Amino acid sequence: MADPHPEPLHRFQALCTSDSEQLRELAMRWLGAVRIELRNAGPFKARLNALNLETTGLAFGATSCDLVADQYPMDVVRLQIALRGRGLSCVGSQVTDIDERQFAVTPAGVPWQMVSQGGHERMTLRFNQAALTRKLTAIIGMQPKGDHGFEHAIPAHDPQARSLLRLITFVAQQLNDSTVALPRAVCRELEDAIQVAFLSASRHKYRELLDAPAPLPEFSLVRRMEDFIEASWREAITIERLVVEAGVSARSLFRAFERVRGYSPIAFAKSVRLRRARELLLSGDPAMTVAAAAATCNFVNPGHFARYYRETFGELPSMTVQRVGQ
At what angle do helices 317-325 and 265-281 cross, to 10 degrees? Predict the structure, then answer.
């Protein structure tokens, strides 16, 4: 019988062992650890599920005993979220709890220490520092100077932190449930969404600029960008790509869409893909199932696709297929 609550990313198991030396070897080879110390080991078990997207790594880890790991500097920003128990992130004299109250952020380019109590389970995201900088530049319309100045903790009760956790949980579930590799365009858009959500939830010296009023461009830009999205609907619609095409910051572009249309460029892209999916289902092609149409139009979750489709067209996609086949 299938486990109704599988581990996050269980399809991407990298380690499941009772051999402490195997854990040390993997942690040093893959995770950037220079030293691993196990305490109160007793009957020992460690688990690690992990995968890398283009510029973001996702991992689930758990150990049955207390663990201390010294980590060398890497060009990644880490976000650590406790799913069970308690851990610590130590950077110099800064010690940050990882528990139900808060997430921990470890900046790039510094040595740090990870401490886990026995039974602690966590999700860890590793963001490429350069990719985050590009994303932030696209959003605020200026090149960040120097270190981003990330604060070491994100209160878990903040609305933006809760949104970030829901998004991470959704992405991990889709990766778990998909029996085939997701299309590259889908993965890039999911990664894009996670990075934007992280920048919005974390505390850093540029955060106020994310919410500050942006210059309003010419309204004709909206029509031009709609034409671009219409022509590019099969491809990944990322923040950076929209900004390059528009020639203005993401804040300005999104403000123009909200002012002129009442929705975002991302919402418009979804509506275009729904229309394309309906055209495919109405084509009469016997090979074009609901699942095939959803995948072709970059909808990662067939259930969500069916809901969006019904909200837009007043019927489930399966009903469209039935009518065409009559």
Answer: 30
